[in-house]
Amino acid sequence: MAGLDDLQNLLNKAMQVIPDKLPIIIEVEGLNFIKGNFRAQGFVDGTKKAWKKRQTERDGRDLTRYKTNRVGAAGSLNKFGQREQGRAILVGHDTGGDKLINSIRARRNRQRVTFYTYKKYGQRHNEGLDGMPKRQFMGMSKTLENNIKKKLIKELDKALKK
Known about the structure:
Number of helices: 5
Low-confidence stretches: none
Number of strands: 4
Oligomer: single chain
């Protein structure tokens, strides 16, 4: 039968594992969560909150995609419009489309993990500033918390079995 000394040893082992593993787990799970939000085209907080669609028309006319005032070409897609068809939100049409998602970084130390982007327009999209619709991809989420919890429990079980 296990005594108090065995319990104390397990608790000491857990106290050594948690401070080392927790920031790494939060960093990895956080980056995966943010990139997953880009793939889902919405913010997942228990349920998915889809991003607002891109605005492609003004005054009932699609100004960015169609040729106009050309004999035989009116109404057909121009080069830009052909690339735009079905394009994901927050993704560029001519640049590989991954500048914002690939700009997401994490900075960690023993007590804190900070997620940031060096793109100036990242905050504008995430928070919906300056007339831009809110397309949140970063922030606290129940889904993220659950992912971190599951991973931490798995790591603790692994450490305590040794």
